[in-house]
# Entry
Amino acid sequence: MRSWFQVLRPISPRARLTLGCMSFVLPVVVWCIVSYVPAVWHPQMLITDPGSAEYLQAGMHMDRHAFADAVKEAEDDHKPPPKGVPSNPIYLPAPHEVAAAFYTAFVTPPPTQDGPWLHQSLWHSIQVIFWGFVISSILGVPIGILCGTYAGFARLNEPFIEFFRYLPAPAFGALAVAILGIYDGPKITIIVIGTFFQQVLIIANTTRKLDVALVEAALTLGIKKLKLLSRVVIPGILPDLYRDQRILLGWAWTYLIVAELIGTSTGITFFITQQARYQHFATVYAAIMMIGIIGLGTDIVLAILGKRLFPWDRTLDKSA
Amino acid sequence: MIRKGAISTIFGLALFAMTGVSPSSAAPLTIGYSDWPGWVAFQVAIDKGWFKEAGVDVNFQWFDYSASMDAFAAGKIDANLMTNGDTLATGAGGGKGIMIMLTDYSSGNDMIVGKPGLKSLKDLMGKKVGIEVGVVEHLLLVHGLKELKMTEKDVTLVNAKTNETPQVLASGQVDAIGAWQPISGQAMKGLPGSRPLYTSAKAPGLIYDVLAASPASLAAHKDDYAKIIKVWDKVVHYINDPKTQAHAVKIMSKRVGLTPQEYLPLLKGTHLIDVAEGKKTFKKGAGLDSLYGSTKNADDFNVANAVYKQAQDVNSYIDPSLTMAVK
# Structure
């Protein structure tokens, strides 16, 4: 136990695993307590029998004290009072409801004959993210490295990028539709706009952290400009660059929902908004979890891959 | 240099998009539709293959309602399903649409819901109403108040997103809200005892839903649109016929992720308009029973609420000829 709190020291693999699992178990336990122990919260009553109150229907949610008033009113009139059980608001479904919705979502056939199944919608979303991230990286990574290497280049670019990164990507939605149409083009654009500008700045900063001694040594040995980049700078920052990209990929995911609301309704976002419109919140939570699982899964795979690719990099051990 | 970078991003994307989707002249007509019973109705024709039968190549694309208007305004789709008032608003912004066919008018789905204890719009005198300013429910409220010789100055409007009105009503910070189904239904479910004070059933024709086509597409594909109107007539009769209604409701409810039982009330609050009735509604008149009168009313409302500044030439937005030509 004490070993968990040693400053800047790695913890044992066993403790790592335990703590990692706990970080998921704890929130779920809290959720279970709030959902299954009526004494904790349950601010509403779920009507099971409307009794004599004509404005009630079975299945309605009602505030506890309003329900108490309704019961009292009926009892005073010597009429059958409404009956109900304590419940949480409709927007906080219990874990088992979400689990059931998770399963149901995958086995429910698509709403239209040629419509996508849920796994096809998810795959569509993943492709949008993939292309958005690839296009952003093709431009952002080289520009970032150049900015980090040459102060002049940085000065020419970074003030504008600093300005642009504050512009909210979703605000470009209608513009993107006007230029690129209604299908995947504008969606990918939003992800690129959301990722690219942060990417340049982050990668430029990472490049600046490269050990100056390495560059000076190379210059002393008479290296050519281009070779300095390809032989010294890029290999020097590669592990950090890789980690930056992992973080930025997560960043790209956060833009998915706004991106997919633009143009035709597709992907996981169509699923989420459609379910939310009819207050099927259990399904909404399930869909949000799917995104989380895909995101975390990708990140774990990339982390393991990173360890293989850069065995000499010790900071990777700490983070992953 | 980074400007160049930004521009090349966009350029690169444009290339990407062009290879992905290439709009060519032989492409099918693209029509936007969204979650409203009168528009989901088209799903019946799509699923049953009636467009193919009629020899017209259409590609219905499902949108969020406001995203469908963005796409139409940008000229990325040929036609869109929207309200007559929103057709004006889109047109005032530069994305002109010609209303060539009516799908329905709201007949109960749009409503002003009052908290428990309130019984009619009269009770709203001096009270707060949560409503999305400039949107159809606002128009409905103004219309309802007018019947009682009241104006919107007699109430305090609290601007709220229609999607959020159930929570706004439940919070107790307003006395009534305006919303359409299914949101209005959720609002009443969320605050037992609340009830509709006024609904669109009392103002038939206040809000017409239409198929609006871009002028260029209409000129190039008149025959195709004529065929679509004929298919629509078939859809309305299929949905209204008690023998086939259950099957139609099944198709429609599936489209939006509800059970048929949940969907039926939403359909009942919508009055579908077949071609015969459409012909009557396309006759010029000042009342709400004419599309012209109703659209003029919406135009006045839009100008009064600064949805746009310049009053629109209503006649230029309406082309009854295709509906009238159906035999």
In short: The radius of gyration of chain A is 27 Å.
